[in-house]
Write a structure and sequence with these properties.
With 239 residues, the protein is mainly α. Helix content is 77%, strand content 0%.
């Protein structure tokens, strides 16, 4: 556990030492700020961040791949992956450490958006229910963790950060659009797509409905892609 924490803190700090980290923070705050100003601060509308949380699947779409693309690709490009793999840490600890580092940076990105909730409380009468807001932020953490796990897997496959970003972005985009209402799939495919759809789960959490099935879905998906990243990293020892 100490190795995981050490790697995680090293990874999280590294984001603040490169321009990319600040660009990602600015990008996400810009996107959420536009949505908050245009769709939340509307006179006569209920005081709620529900819309912001419901489209978070698309708001995090360019952000999460930008975080995860350098987790392993940068090590592969710089040739520092070999010393890391020969260090007295297990491959699983490396994967978990880098993933947790990405999650810590994601939390740093999400923290300033609490100002949106504070503004909403200050200008609204009656004030918004804190339950849906808390559940909405839970959905952001769960969704961000899943996106970062997907990105971690693709980052282990290539030394190119650009390719890792595009692979993750396109995979997540296809997953979001393919399971949305925009796709009219024939039965029983429609039921399979509905079972793995992210949008309805985000909508439920944005309304304050914390269903354990939704939480298990996100955690299971995260664990699956972290396991794939682990296998991909281990395969480098076999070459």
């Amino acid at each position: 556990m100490s190795a995981v924490l050490c790697i995680a803190l090293r990874e999280a700090r590294s984001f603040f030492r490169v321009p990319l980290g600040w660009v990602v923070i600015a990008l996400y705050l810009f996107l959420t700020g536009v949505v908050f100003a245009e769709r939340t601060l509307v006179p006569g509308e209920p005081a709620s961040l529900r819309y912001l949380f419901s489209i978070s699947g698309f708001l995090l779409l360019p952000v999460a791949p930008a975080i995860s693309m350098r987790l392993f690709s940068d090590e592969l490009r710089a040739g520092t992956i070999e010393p890391l793999l020969t260090a007295p840490v297990r491959d699983l600890e490396i994967v978990l450490g880098k993933f947790v580092g990405g999650v810590l940076f994601l939390l740093a990105i999400l923290a300033p958006t609490l100002a949106h909730a504070a503004i909403l409380v200050a200008v609204s009468d009656p004030q918004p229910d804190p339950g849906p807001i808390a559940a909405g932020y839970l959905s952001l953490v769960l969704l961000g963790g899943l996106y970062l796990a997907v990105g971690s897997f693709f980052s282990t496959l290539t030394a190119s950060q650009t390719l890792a970003f595009l692979s993750t972005f396109l995979f997540l985009l296809v997953a979001l659009l393919g399971t949305s209402d925009l796709v009219a799939a024939p039965p029983p495919t429609d039921r399979w797509l509905a079972a793995v759809a992210i949008g309805p789960r985000l909508a439920d959490l944005g309304r304050g409905v914390i269903d354990t099935a939704h939480v298990v879905f996100f955690l299971s998906g995260t664990a699956l892609f972290l396991a794939l990243a682990h296998v991909s990293l281990q395969s480098r020892r076999w070459r």
